Amino acid sequence: MSTEIDTARAATLLDDAPLKDATLFRFATAGSVDDGKSTLVGRLLHDSKAILADQLDAVARTSADRGFGGSGATGTQAIDLALLTDGLRAEREQGITIDVAYRYFATDRRSFILADCPGHVQYTKNTVTGASTADAVIVLIDARKGVLEQTRRHLSVLQLLRVAHVIVAVNKIDLVDFSESVFREIEADVQQVGRELGLGSDGIADLLVIPVSALDGDNVVDRSERTPWYEGPALLETLESLPAADELESHLESFRFPVQLVIRPQGALAPDAIEGGLDVEAYRDYRAYAGQITEGSVKLGDKVTVLTPGQGPRTTTVTGIDFAGAELIEAAAPQSVSIRLADEFDVARGDTIAAAGTIRESSADLYAALCWLSPKPLREGAKVLVKHGTRTVQALVRNVSGKLDLATFKLEGASSLELNDIGHAQLRLAAPLPLENYLHHRRTGAFLVIDPIDGNTLAAGLVNDHPGDHEDERYSI
Amino acid sequence: MSTQITNEDLELSVLESDTTVPATRLSSLDTLESEAIHIIREVVAEFEKPALLFSGGKDSVVMLHLATKAFWPGKVPFPVLHVDTGHNFPEVIDFRDRTVERLGLKLVVGSVQEFIDRGELAERADGTRNPLQTIPLLDAIQSNKFDAVFGGGRRDEDKARAKERILSLRDEFGQWDPRNQRPELWNLYNGRHTVGQHVRAFPISNWTELDVWRYIERENIELPGLYYAHEREVFARDGMWRAVGEVSQPLDTEEVITKTVRYRTVGDMSCTGAVESTAATVRDVVIEVAASTITERGATRADDRISEAAMEDRKKDGYF
Question: With bands split at pLDDT 50, 70 and 90, how would you rate the model's confidence at A389?
């Protein structure tokens, strides 16, 4: 009835400096049905003290009701940690996870957002969803089974989505008697698949392999004494120290800013701002472009290019970077700001502001990889909607040029795409878009394919270069 | 991740990133704020008639604060909607009215009492009106033709909410279909809907209770006084302290005592419990929340204790 106080935890979290400086790290988990993913997630939440007393009580009761007999190496009460991640009624009834669930926990260094992606039938849909925003993805492997076809599929999807860090957790290492040779063999297989895919070898992503026991907690939060031959960090340490995607991209000079809306209050200034001393006269003609910086950074005085569909690129200068009354000198991804420009262009939602000379002109021909997420298959000749940045346009599917065999990484002939397929297609857009290769631009190279009839999301799209494109044409502006 | 073009550049850029990783990487609160503002602006840009659910509770107060930042120096460009159970804490209603006045907003009220008076809703045996809010809410959405409704729901609150999308489609009956949700990719939100459908938008989905309190502290956001420790006449029921009030009377067997308490959530007076606390300032509350070993709903909401899937069932029917 009274709020119970765990002062040790409060002291850790509220030691002022780390809490204020704590940054956000987003990661996802992917795995097959039985490789212990839910247990691993439960273990991370439990051992990082993210599970509160009442949640733990409920889980302990259910574990006892179901006769759960596992025992923790850490000497804890035997509870089924997988229950901590149960969500919907149907999931509890069927003992499966249906949909991506989001979990939250924090250490004194970072706040974590975990997208827990179920690994059964709709694994591509769920993995693509979770990985699209993730700084890192953990792929689970059962140490008794090693690299399976599904592991190859998962790694293939992660390579395609350019996830910054891929962590392979070799789980159930306790069930192979903490054998180094078993681990080394799996590690070599994983690195082999990584090489075939280009993971971890060309700067696109790291590929880390860690032996863990989710059930007992070995190498999850703390390094285990039962794997003395493993010298790397435990899983949580790894997650605390890897650079986030925006850190890796922060040095880029390719500032990108899709305009969300124009802020032009005219007479309708906020009464609380006026109350706070806003100079009404000075803000009478205020006009700024609101949006979130998707990559790079911008400074006052920077030369920028404005791309408006149907018009040639226009170059101007940044005269203001505003955020809720504060005038900034510089801003970087992923900040939401309002930008003022020197010239009174007609700029509107759907336009893109970019560092001058770094973006090519908009195009109505879209070549892309599509991750098909709908039970309704894609057919050539279909009319769809494409949502890219802050603009949605109609599009015609001109052709499907093949689909990827995720197990062999080979492209095979196909003229349609079904649920969970990944393939290549060419679309003709009703209006040009500032398309960029996903390989180099994770935000402005991504788009959704939407069903114009029921509005559902059909596919995740990744922009490819036009065939025959040359590097030197890329920066023609 | 790198956007360089050749392998040589890639290696170079990796080296550079090691030396130039700025000390100024956004803090987790700034990242969450930036994400929420992006979502609020997307909804305003893409929908005809959005509204913000505003109860005077801390999550909706934070939502409104984010909206003022998103459109500064302009006014918040949408009305606020309050579903009034008729069992409110008077100081919360007072706070609501002052806030609306201060920001120059339009307030739309959906009244549970009016539905009961007209015989369209029946009082429950337990006197709780929280579950009765769904019908007046859907009625207000329909009659005002709101096509997007902002809520302060967070995924850390409940296991059904953990599966909720940031933009979540509701059918003609306001129902949520958790098994058939649109995948949400990158920061591209798909809010397409047909006539009669509407979308619930949850810009602070990724915030935790502690994030909300730290943000309230950092931004110096005013809240109704009952979030902070005060003396109140209470009695024990269902393992919680319940305030004595017009609609919340103790039984003969329930002893009334005066305690120093505060509220962690502000809902219908007939089902919201207080916790014993001496946290009288926002800083005290931040420390208390960080140290608390009980989740906020489990501790103070009788309606979520009804069954393991209580929230899921209410959400499917169109609840917040």
Answer: very high
| B:207-246 residues touching chain A, CB 8 A cutoff | 208, 210-211, 214, 236, 239-241
B299 part of contact set with chain A, CB < 8 Å: yes
Give the pLDDT confidence score for residue B13 in this predicted structure: 35
The predicted-structure confidence for B232-272, as pLDDT tens digits, reads as follows: 999 988 778 888 877 778 888 888 999 999 988 887 777 78
Please identify among residues 12-71 of chain B the ones whose CB lies closer than 8 Å to any CB of chain A: 13-14, 16-17, 20-22, 24-28, 30-35, 37-38, 41-42, 44-45, 68-71
CB contact under 8 A, A448 and B190: yes
Tell me the count of A-B CB pairs closer than 8 A: 284
Query: Which comes out higher in pLDDT, residue A268 or B82?
Result: B82
In this complex, the residue of B34, B159, B299 whose CB is nearest that of residue A292 is B34
For A219-313, strand residue ranges (E) read: 256-258, 261-263, 288-292, 297-299, 303-307
Could you tell me if A181 lies within 8 Å of chain B, comparing CB atoms? no
Cα–Cα distances in angstroms (integers) from residue B314 to residues A213, B134, B198, in the given order: 38, 8, 17
Nearest-CA distance A228 → chain B (Å) = 30
Cα(A209)–Cα(B246) distance, integer angstroms: 62
- Res B28 pLDDT > 60: yes
With residues binned 3-state (H G I as helix, E B as strand, rest as coil), the percentages for chain A, rounded to 5, are 25, 30, 45
For residue B4, CA distances in Å to A103, A331, A370, B8, B10 come to 33, 21, 23, 9, 6
- Full-model pTM: 0.89
Residue A214 CB partners (closer than 8 Å, separation 6+): A36, A37, A39, A40, A42, A43, A81, A169, A171, A172, A220
pLDDT of residue B18: 37
Give the span between the Cα atoms of A127 and A132, in whole angstroms: 8
- The pLDDT score that the predictor gives to residue B180 is 79
Can you read off the two tokens belonging to residue A182?
């078993």
**What tokens does B152 get?**
């302060």
CB contact under 8 A, B27 and A21: yes
| Segment among A391-395, B65-69, B126-130, B167-171 with least mean pLDDT | B126-130
Closest alpha carbon to B77 in B56, B50, B42, B55: B50
The alpha helices in A410-470, defined as continuous H runs, are none
Averaged pLDDT for residues B92-116: 93
Q: Which of A290-294, A428-432, B300-304 has the lowest mean pLDDT?
A: B300-304
d(CA A383, CA B111): 45
Report yes or no: A100 and B155 within 8 Å, Cβ to Cβ.
no
For the record, the structure tokens of B138 come out as: 């859907």
**Best A29, A99, A337 residue to mutate vs chain B (most B CBs within 10 Å):** A99
Kindly state the DSSP code that residue B250 receives in the 8-state scheme.
P
Rg, Å, chain A Cα set: 25
More confident residue, A260 or A97: A260
User: How confident is the model over A363-385, as a mean pLDDT?
Assistant: 94
Q: Is B26 in Cβ contact with A387 (below 8 Å)?
A: no
CB contact under 8 A, A335 and B156: no
Q: What is the average pLDDT score of chain A?
A: 84
Task: Report residue B2 as tokens.
Answer: 């790198």
d(CA A386, nearest CA chain B) in Å? 11
Mean pLDDT calculated for residue range B107-114: 90
Give the residue among A64, A23, A28 at the shortest CA–CA distance from A44.
A28
Rounded to an integer, what distance in angstroms lies between the CA atom of residue A442 and that of residue A334?
13
The CA angle B216-A329-A269, to the nearest 5 degrees, is 55
- Tell me the sheet residues that pair with A207: A166
Asked if A286 is an interface residue toward chain B (Cβ–Cβ < 8 A), one would say yes
User: Closest residue of A to B41, CA-based?
Assistant: A260
